[in-house]
Amino acid sequence: MRIVILVFSFLFALFGMPPAKAQGTRNWTNTVAMLPTGGVSIGNPMARVQLVEWASYTCPHCAAFARDAKPELTALIRSGRVRVEYRTLPRDALDLTAVVLARCGGPNRFITAHDAIFAQQQAMLDKAEAFAATPAAQQPTATIAKRLEQLADATGLRVLLRGHGLDDATMTRCLNDEAGQKRAIAIAEAAQAAGVEGTPSFEVNGKKVVAHDWATLKPFLTAS
Description:
Layout: H1 2-15, E1 32-34, E2 40-42, E3 49-55, H2 60-79, E4 82-88, H3 93-104, H4 107-119, H5 121-132, H6 135-138, H7 144-154, H8 157-162, H9 168-175, H10 178-193, E5 201-204, E6 207-209, H11 214-222
Parallel strand pairs: 3-4
Antiparallel strand pairs: 1-2, 2-4, 3-5, 5-6
Helix pairs in contact: 3-4, 3-7, 3-9
């Protein structure tokens, strides 16, 4: 045994000790889950700061928040200090279309789709306005799903999310999934019951906060 120990001591002296396992290097932005609340969470489940955001894909203030918050909020999530739960609130048929498609790729594709929709929000709204003036938009559809399909095509949402890994067959299936539609609508109903009056709205560690932009919200997340 002494000889073995001496040999190992010689090897460690020659080559150095094996590197210690890195600590605190986990990237928590890769931890994404669909929750029973209907929301989608990203980050460390045990994070000191638990943030809930209620947002609408047709809300310009929500798009501004997504843009302004992205760099610093992503860093906070990555570090494990903040976990975010996104609860998207459909306010109309276009919003419902966007919510259904954002969720369509499951947890691993949600954040990419969520960011992409907000980044292209103005183009989506412009195309929706143009579509609203067409005869097709004036005619009732046989089902809600058919209207959602029309909007997905007319507003460029289908093309946008095709570029982020969703194929047409999967998107069509999601748009025609009545259970998925009901889950999306249930989030809005729960928010209304909870007294959420507008978007974006935020809750930090279980308490609503008076903040509607990144500059106002940030201190609630970074206070020691």
